């Protein structure tokens, strides 16, 4: 992924003896990525023109971007969860207006550089469209060369994110749901459910119980202990929720943008740019909605921007313990 902070996405393939293949997450829609994909398939004995099935863990462009092009070359069927189907379609002017309204609710005014940068993200041109995609559903069993994959619906990072389990080999393809080092972005964005963080935490618990020996994520590297990594992600999100409550206890109310500027990030807030800053805002918003749902904070939804205030901070610990989540403070 040239000129992208993640640097690369990981693509996987099941290859039959005759060169036909099932491909999982073909990747980023640039010429450099296409060359890497074709060369990689040929290196493992797969014929790109004979790919007969393309499975997507989710609709983000760094995973789905080459699906349309590979389908045109091979005639393969593209399959993903129905909740992510809109991500394969170019966004029009109406979507831009929804983003502007979303930014305004978060406290971003028209003079803020974030507004302009967020509406013009540094992404490659929109990829070849996927015509008539097929859908996978929670619990489906998908046949691949030499085995079967069980579909696990794991919403949170996107509404339609799925993981694919190869129980026969003890493998789990996690896309962006569980990564070995970084925390996947879990945002309440335009088109995402307000319950994104609740969905994500429930989905984490689902995959932690799977009897897998190797995890194959969409970025970084393979790893083995899914339960330990899931526990670490629970701890991360609990700490973020606690941090928000500390900020709101010091001064309420806050807009979403004001909160984001005061929270701890891997870099200073003013070093986070464009689409990444918008994703960070969405992540703060998903945590605020979680706190609102458990009764720890309230929001003033009558005005623009929305403002948030603390009302019962102990409600977080009560809800967290009742759900049986690890990572309590």
Backbone CA Rg: 20 Å
Structural class: alpha/beta
Shape: globular
DSSP strand tally: 12
Offer a few descriptive terms.
single chain, 329 residues, alpha/beta, 5-stranded mixed sheet, 10 helices, 12 strands, 37% helix
Overview of the structural elements:
There is one protein chain. With 329 residues, the chain is of the alpha/beta class. The chain has helices at 31-43, 61-64, 67-74, 93-106, 113-119, 196-208, 226-250, 256-262, 274-293, 314-323, and strands at 12-15, 21-24, 51-55, 77-81, 134-136, 141-144, 147-153, 162-166, 171-175, 214-217, 297-300, 307-310. The protein has a 5-stranded mixed sheet with strand order 1-2-3-4-5. A 5-stranded mixed sheet has the order 6-7-8-9-10. It has a two-stranded antiparallel sheet with strand order 11-12. Strand 1 (12-15) and strand 2 form a beta hairpin. Helix 6 runs antiparallel to helix 7 (226-250), helix 7 (226-250) packs across helix 9 (274-293) and helix 8 (256-262) crosses helix 9 (274-293). The radius of gyration is 20 Å and the shape is globular. The model has no long low-confidence stretch (mean pLDDT 92).
């Amino acid at each position: 992924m040239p000129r992208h902070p993640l640097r690369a996405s990981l693509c996987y393939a099941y290859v039959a003896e005759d060169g036909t293949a099932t491909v999982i997450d073909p990747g980023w829609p640039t010429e450099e990525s296409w060359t890497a994909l074709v060369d990689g398939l040929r290196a493992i004995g797969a014929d790109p023109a004979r790919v007969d099935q393309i499975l997507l863990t989710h609709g983000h462009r760094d995973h789905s971007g080459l699906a349309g092009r590979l389908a045109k070359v091979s005639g393969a069927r593209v399959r993903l969860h129905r909740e992510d189907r809109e991500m394969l379609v170019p966004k029009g002017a109406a979507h831009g207006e929804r983003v502007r309204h979303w930014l305004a609710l978060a406290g971003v005014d028209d003079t803020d550089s974030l507004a302009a940068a967020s509406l013009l993200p540094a992404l490659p041109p929109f990829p070849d469209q996927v015509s008539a995609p097929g859908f996978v559903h929670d619990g489906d069993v998908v046949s691949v060369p030499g085995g079967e994959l069980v579909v696990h619906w794991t919403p949170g990072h996107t509404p339609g994110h799925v993981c694919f389990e190869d129980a026969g080999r003890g493998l789990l393809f996690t896309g962006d749901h569980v990564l070995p080092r970084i925390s996947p972005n879990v945002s309440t964005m335009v088109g995402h459910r307000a319950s994104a963080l609740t969905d994500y935490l429930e989905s984490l618990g689902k995959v932690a119980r799977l009897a897998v020996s190797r995890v194959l994520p969409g970025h970084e590297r393979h790893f083995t202990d899914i339960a330990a990594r899931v526990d670490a992600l629970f701890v991360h999100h609990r700490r973020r929720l606690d941090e928000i409550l500390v900020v709101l206890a010091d001064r309420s109310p806050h807009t979403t943008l004001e909160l984001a500027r005061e929270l701890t990030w891997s870099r200073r807030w003013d070093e986070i740019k464009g689409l990444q800053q918008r994703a960070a805002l969405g992540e703060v918003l998903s945590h605020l909605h979680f706190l609102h749902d458990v009764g720890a904070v309230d929001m003033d939804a009558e005005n623009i921007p929305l403002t948030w205030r603390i009302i019962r901070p102990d409600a977080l610990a009560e809800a967290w313990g009742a759900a049986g989540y690890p990572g309590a403070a």
